[in-house]
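Cross-posting from the chemistry board since nobody answered there.

I work mostly on the small-molecule side, so proteins are not my area. We synthesized 2-acetamido-2-deoxy-beta-D-glucopyranose and want a rough idea of how it might sit in this target. Sequence and SMILES are below. Is it possible to get a predicted 3D structure of the two together?
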Amino acid sequence: MKRRDVKQNEPSSDNSGGQRSSKSKKKEGTRSPQSQGWLKKGLLALFVILVVVPFSVKMLPELIQHFVYTHRIRLPFFVDLSRPADFSLNHTINMYLTSEEGISLGVWHTVPESRWKEAQGKDLAWYQNTLSDGSPVFIYLHGNTGTRAAPHRVGVAKILSALGYHVLVPDYRGFGDSTGEPTESGLTTDALCVYNWVKERSGNSLVVIWGHSLGTGVVTNTADKLLEQGVVFDGVILEGAVNTVRQNIPPFNPFAWHYWKFPGLGYLYRAPWEDYKFLFPTEENLKKMRSPILFLHSEDDHLVPIEVAQQTYEMAARAQNAERVKLVTFEGSLGYLHNGLYRDPRLPEIIKRFVQSL
Ligand SMILES: *[C@@H]1O[C@H](CO)[C@@H](O)[C@H](O)[C@H]1NC(C)=O
């Protein structure tokens, strides 16, 4: 999930700190026309959040899709996804893969940073050939909202590339410049498409899959699909992993954050949510998975509480063992929240050690 989520959470946390605002009002004494304006806006916002939105959601279950994925919010705005060099990824090519008929996925492939000079002006064929150069290949499955150009996603690609790895970052269907509309099974199909495409070209190189936020749900769904064919990922990194079972819907589901602070809303929200069959059964999937897994979680994650991460990790470790399943947490005082742990100076070493253990 994106910084935007953090922002949009602010009004609700302000709400819960209602004492603060009432105190300041007392100080003012009289109500100015300005504060009346704010009151009107506040009431209107409440009306929208408590009445219009749930009502619309009940009437139009497809709207759930937009709340869950918020894929139409193409953050950052006004960027050209066909020019990854604009994001100082000068050793990256933009390409399109066909996931299924009529579904084209925009994908960035970044080669190991050590090859940046060599990569200048090279075409798709050159990039594809590099995939078998023996360097580990990462597929990064991002969270909801925004595109592959979002700063925290580019941040991860840069770290991995600097470590000498290839990185492929797709936008799922309906996100960025990819066509189609997102659905849970559609996202799995997209991830499988990228994985299979990579595997056809990566020779004996390690292929590691990194999911962030909603992307962790896509990773485990994809792992489950691959298990049917007896295939396991060489390694899995789950950053800010969501767990829909432990974060019951509502009010703690990370994708229903709009509703966290509005008690009672869950009642209205539940039915269409269930109709939509939005599952992401991370917990069930993790029980079956047989890949080395590294969980990364920030203690101040505001969308997935650290306790949930701890429980998810313990469950996954029990299903395999503590050698193969690891959890690395980042202190809350660092302020990484849900998206920011790519900024941690220790991260490259953590990733490197994980890859070396594979
Ligand atoms: C290209 O990217 C590499 C790696 O990030 C960087 O060291 C280099 O300075 C960049 N070169 C140009 C011309 O921007």
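Reply from a structural biologist on the board:
Welcome over. Reading the output above for you: The beta strands are 92-100, 103-110, 137-141, 166-170, 207-212, 235-239, 293-298, 325-330. Residues 33-59 form the longest helix (27 residues). Happy to explain the token format if needed.
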